[in-house]
Specification:
By secondary structure, the protein is an alpha/beta fold. 41% of the residues lie in helices and 22% in strands. Bound molecules: 3-isopropylmalic acid and magnesium ion.
């Protein structure tokens, strides 16, 4: 029987539309092979939505997302909107999407592919075999805590405020996702906080520690975030699954991404308790190369694989895409961001066409 899924496509800004086009073609090919059909609905988000309707997350977009089985997002943002007031910034649309779909768990894998080991700025012996999953809390913490804003003090001075806050329930649910993720991986979980300074982090640490009694098969450790940042660069192989709060996860996931040499390779999944997840590359909209057919579409393609695996429970289809990407790299094809001597640089579109050839051969 053919299974049909409703997928909302949010191409967004910059290189978003180019990489989305490649990813959708790949999804269609794998769908044919695996007997899956897709109904696509495209919607506006970010700068594209600001330009069209003066709202980075139009209600219609959120409604379309809510009615779908999964959401595939490319990238948002660009210089053009960087100086706009906050409610007219692309990032506000992305945060609204996360909050609107209650996507509290963000999974960001960073895996060193042997084919790309030379792309890393670290020594091969340091990064070889690195395979990390950052589980970032995504709808709480300082990104969403109140009070927030710029207020006048009694003396009339302006004072900017954000609040890092977590409830027990918020820590508990992200903790469970992290322990379960670690169980499916090597069984090692490192929780990252700043409990030596922050009360909110002490609560985080206490609750994660308490939860560990329910997951005796997972080996739990704790690090302060400054040390974790250092350890990630010093000896990343000590990590398997990392769980951390929204802001710390934002920062650590960029560090973990860069261990692999290019942020252009990394997908992510944002999941809620129920309802559709959002699957998107970790990288941004790269406005400097937009429209030039130069972008690396592989993070977007691998986001399709994460969507199949974590959003639609179609692991066989996900495997096909991931193995096609490995074959492509093994054949020496690259985009500019990951090129090295002896490899062949292809355009964004040509990477897509080559992947389709590989899928049709396999
Ligand atoms: C990310 C990005 C976003 C974040 C920005 C674009 C709002 O950096 O997804 O990591 O800070 O969460
Ligand atoms: Mg970030």
């Amino acid at each position: 029987m053919t299974q049909t899924y409703r997928i909302t496509l949010l191409p967004g800004d910059g290189i978003g539309p180019e990489i989305m086009a490649v990813a959708v073609d790949i999804l269609k090919v794998v769908g044919q092979q695996q007997n899956l059909t897709f109904e696509f609905n495209e919607a506006l988000i970010g700068g594209a939505a600001i330009d069209a309707v003066e709202n980075p997350l139009p209600k219609q977009t959120l409604d379309t997302c809510k009615q779908s089985d999964a959401v595939l997002l490319a990238a948002i943002g660009g210089y053009k909107w960087d100086t706009m007031p906050r409610h007219l910034r692309p990032e506000t649309g992305l945060l609204g999407l996360r909050a609107g779909l209650e996507l509290f768990a963000n999974l960001r894998p960073a895996q060193i592919l042997p084919q790309l080991i030379d792309a890393s700025s670290l020594k091969p012996e340091v990064v070889e075999g690195v395979d990390i999953m950052v589980v970032r809390e995504l709808t709480g913490g300082i990104y969403f805590g109140s009070p927030k804003g710029v207020f006048s003090t009694e003396t009339g001075e302006q004072r900017g405020v954000n609040t890092m806050a977590y409830t027990v329930a918020e820590i508990d649910r992200i903790g469970r996702v992290a322990f379960e993720t670690a169980q499916k991986r090597s069984g090692k979980l490192c929780s990252v906080d700043k409990a030596n300074v922050l009360e909110v982090s002490q609560l985080w640490r206490d609750l994660i520690t308490a939860l560990s009694s329910e997951y005796p098969d997972v080996e739990l450790s704790h690090l302060y975030v400054d040390n974790a940042a250092m350890q990630l660069v010093r000896w990343p192989k000590q990590f398997d699954t990392i769980v951390t709060s929204n802001l710390f996860g934002d920062i650590l996931s960029d560090i973990a991404a860069m261990l692999t040499g290019s942020i252009g390779m990394l997908p992510s999944a944002s999941l809620g308790a129920d309802g559709p997840g959002v699957f998107e590359p970790v990288h941004g909209s790269a406005p400097d190369i937009a429209g030039q057919d130069k972008a690396n579409p592989l993070a977007q393609v691998l986001s399709v694989a994460m969507m199949l695996r974590y959003g639609l429970d179609q692991p066989a289809a996900a495997d096909k895409i991931e193995s096609a990407v490995l074959t492509l790299l093994a054949q020496g094809y690259r985009t500019g961001d990951i090129q090295s001597p002896g490899t062949t640089v292809l355009s964004c579109k040509a990477i897509g066409e080559t992947l389709i050839q590989i899928l049709n051969q396999g």
